[in-house]
């Protein structure tokens, strides 16, 4: 049975949390049956059943090890397919771009219209249905600007992802390669769709509580609170609180692939003082892709070393209650206050002059960033300065927390600055002390000789590292 035949026969497959992995496991099973391998029974009776029952998205074969029937060999086979899958072609439309919206819309149309002869779409309906999947507009009301999200259609046709039948009116449908790409897109953004479905439960509770809310793109965090002027003539101001929401399984994945450390760094650099990790436990930690001890340690480190707030909830509904209470708290705190917008650099200068106790009592707490500046500064895709790039480099070194890194780059904003100071030192001991005696964090502790020695060896030695 061909790939496309299986796809047409199983259009309800996308209800699964891991449809692509399920597809690959079916292929592995069929191969085992063809070769009459003993493992064919394991694939069909145990692995597929446990995969279909698992309610959360998995991001690698390695993560499947927590499921019944999955051993190192099966996990490796899935990872090999995943690697080949992601290598297929370099073209990958951006999330919620015009091309993305067109492909997803045509794919959904195929799911709903099982008749091959009639699973095409006309331009008007395609534009209307695709708009909800795109941040770019498919129609333009500006006579000087003729570009719209529909322009991406010509590129999709050129690359043979969409077939255009030159009838009147023109008909559009996916090619086989376009279908594969659309499924690949759906795989890559499966976590988003799953979260959105679950998040509907969260939003329902927020609506019931009559909390005003809007949907928008945040470059850091998942929830933020803004103050809006009554007159509408002033910019929105972001309050000093932000929430990053994580499912426990996603937390495991982000720790494994390094995203967790990078996300914490970006939260610390966002200019928001009170950053909260909202972790949805979904039951026991014992069946995750990391040992329970590792997860507990990560939790403690986030609170004690990184000085971020961690709050655990049981599910989306419980998370909604937390957000509702936070919203009501912030409304009570700020509703009668005069808030002043200022630049992020000014805000950082103000905060350096006052202690945390002063911030809660002093008028400085009423000076906040505009939402626009906060969101633009937090964009991880913006070009990095040398200082930011150096900080990201230092973050890869074991034992260097965000606070230690920030203290180092404040004094030495580039490798050249650091190397220049090392060259002035008379011996190894003085080079170690260069960073070892730097103060970091609210407790003003020393970075320490271990880090001082390691960084000096990395940046100022020509001999092999020990």
TrEMBL record:
Class in the EC hierarchy, top level = hydrolase
Gene Ontology BP term (one):
DNA catabolic process
What does the record give as the function of this protein?
Answer: Interacts with EME1 to form a DNA structure-specific endonuclease with substrate preference for branched DNA structures with a 5'-end at the branch nick. Typical substrates include 3'-flap structures, D-loops, replication forks and nicked Holliday junctions. May be required in mitosis for the processing of stalled or collapsed replication fork intermediates. May be required in meiosis for the repair of meiosis-specific double strand breaks subsequent to single-end invasion (SEI).
**What protein family is recorded?**
Belongs to the XPF family.
- Keywords of the record: DNA damage, DNA recombination, DNA repair, Endonuclease, Hydrolase, Magnesium, Metal-binding, Nuclease, Nucleus
From which organism does this entry originate?
A: Brachionus calyciflorus
The superkingdom of the source organism is: Eukaryota
What this protein is called in its record is Crossover junction endonuclease MUS81
């Amino acid at each position: 049975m061909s790939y496309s035949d299986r796809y047409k026969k199983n259009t309800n497959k996308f209800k699964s949390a891991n449809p692509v992995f399920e597809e690959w496991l079916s292929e592995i099973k069929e191969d085992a049956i063809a070769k009459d391998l003993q493992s064919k029974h394991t694939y069909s009776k145990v692995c597929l059943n446990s995969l279909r029952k698992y309610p959360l998205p998995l991001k690698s074969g390695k993560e499947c090890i927590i499921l019944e029937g999955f051993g190192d060999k099966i996990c490796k086979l899935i990872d090999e397919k995943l690697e080949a899958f992601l290598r297929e072609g370099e073209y990958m439309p951006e999330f919620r771009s015009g091309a993305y919206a067109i492909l997803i819309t045509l794919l959904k149309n195929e799911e709903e219209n099982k008749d091959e002869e009639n699973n095409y779409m006309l331009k008007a309906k395609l534009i209307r249905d695709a708009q909800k999947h795109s941040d770019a507009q498919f129609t333009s009301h500006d006579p000087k600007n003729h570009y719209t999200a529909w322009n991406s259609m010509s590129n999709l046709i050129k690359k043979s992802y969409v077939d255009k039948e030159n009838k009147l009116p023109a008909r559009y449908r996916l090619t086989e390669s376009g279908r594969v790409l659309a499924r690949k897109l759906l795989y890559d953004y499966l976590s988003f769709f799953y979260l959105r479905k679950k998040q509907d439960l969260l939003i329902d509770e927020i609506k019931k509580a009559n909390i005003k809310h809007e949907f928008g793109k945040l470059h850091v965090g998942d929830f933020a609170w803004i103050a809006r002027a009554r007159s509408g003539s002033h910019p929105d101001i972001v309050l000093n609180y932000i929430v990053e929401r994580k499912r426990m399984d996603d937390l495991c994945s982000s720790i494994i692939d390094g995203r967790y450390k990078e996300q914490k760094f970006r939260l610390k650099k966002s200019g928001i003082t009170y950053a909260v990790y909202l972790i949805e436990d979904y039951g026991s930690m014992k069946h995750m892709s990391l040992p329970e001890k590792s997860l507990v340690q990560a939790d403690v480190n986030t609170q004690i070393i990184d000085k971020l707030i961690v709050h655990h909830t049981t599910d989306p509904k419980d998370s909604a209650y937390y957000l509702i209470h936070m919203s009501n708290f912030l409304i009570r705190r700020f509703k009668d206050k005069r808030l002043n917008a200022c630049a992020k650099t000014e805000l950082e200068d103000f905060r350096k002059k006052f202690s945390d106790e002063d911030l809660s009592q002093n008028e400085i707490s009423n000076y906040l960033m505009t939402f626009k500046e906060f969101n633009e500064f937090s964009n991880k895709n913006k070009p990095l300065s040398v200082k930011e790039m150096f900080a990201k480099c230092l973050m890869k070194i074991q034992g260097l927390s965000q606070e230690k890194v920030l203290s180092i780059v404040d004094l030495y904003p580039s490798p050249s600055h650091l190397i220049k100071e090392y060259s002035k030192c008379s011996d190894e001991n003085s080079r170690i002390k260069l960073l070892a005696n730097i103060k970091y964090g609210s407790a003003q502790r020393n970075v320490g000789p271990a880090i001082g020695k390691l960084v000096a060896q990395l940046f100022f030695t020509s001999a092999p590292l020990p």
